[in-house]
Predict the structure.
Amino acid sequence: MAETSAPARYTELTDLYSDRAKMTGPGIVGLDPRVIRKVISFSGGYPDATSLPIQDIIEATRVALERDGEWALQYAFGSGIPELVEQLRIKLERDQGIKAGVENILITNGGSQALGLIYEMFVNPGDVILSEAPYFLGAVHYARQNGAEVHEIGLDDEGLIVADLEAELKALRAAGKRAKFLYLVPNFQNPTGITYSLERRKQIIALAQEYGLPILEDDAYFDLRFDGEKVPTFYTLDGSGLVMYCGTFSKILSAGIRLGWVVAAPDVIAHLSGLKTDYGTGAFASAVAAEFAGSGTLLEHIQELKALYHARRDVMLAALEAEMPAGTSWTHPTGGFFIWVTLPAGVTSAEVTRLAQQRGVGVSDGTYFYTRGGGESNVRLSYSFNTADEIRTGVRILGDVIREVQAVHG
């Protein structure tokens, strides 16, 4: 018998990585998501665990499989199974005021895939995109992954500052450049919790149309409004095909079902569909979601979620008022999951985040939500995941940490 040589020892393959892999960097490996139960977690946008509609999903699964199990368990080529596209079309017109046909809708593996596909479709390394700042951590990741040059536009209480946007657009035009798109989260913005006013939306649309600027409207929290009146989407205000509207079932059904969507012009949808490498978003999850929505259960569940998150927000706001030291301020969201805290002078987000974590409270460092620096005096808090008692305890610990950092710095 011929002798066989020992297998070669593993050698690092770093030099062979693509530019995109190098820009993206390593991800998280082997993390058990249950670890968030070991701390009071204000750091992530996790839906409330007790509100997950487990029994309703079991029933929707039974009905979907009995009705059309053969196709629910097959590949789902194309832009989405017809049943879910139809239920989403009904929901969008009823709730968001968006009239869309089959040619305008792409079902995706969560809202994250929707955003990722748009970045992949539009951005080459070195291309300019515009973004509100601070902005969603996932969008920061996609910008880096695709090598985008991000020009950040600040926010005030009504949304992105229009004068700064116009100045940036003029500067780009003078330099012979064109931004690929403007990214924004208009409702209960992540991380600040603010909502764009109607007037601000109209001003931004007018500038976008003047400069031919596409808008990526990330509306993950649209349905979770518990104060005030709904504001029309950028998509409905535009009407010219510049807006790509993204949403998700993660916040209103379950994050684990991994279903999102894009609504856009037909040519955009067709090209985004061509970029999907998964042979269509999962038919099984899609069939279950279609039954859940079509039975009326989704509408009832959204109402329950709004009441729950409204109460959680009120608990956190009251706790902040009671526990935060002088010089601390925070936003007052009318929906969604998040509150943006501005720390007292001399207190940094890095110190607060580290010390709070050591005491069992997770918060998000404000610097994570910028590409070019910023957020050193901010932290983001989520009230969606923890109970009222946990929120009160966590905010009390956070207040103690801030006071201790103040004392150290005199």
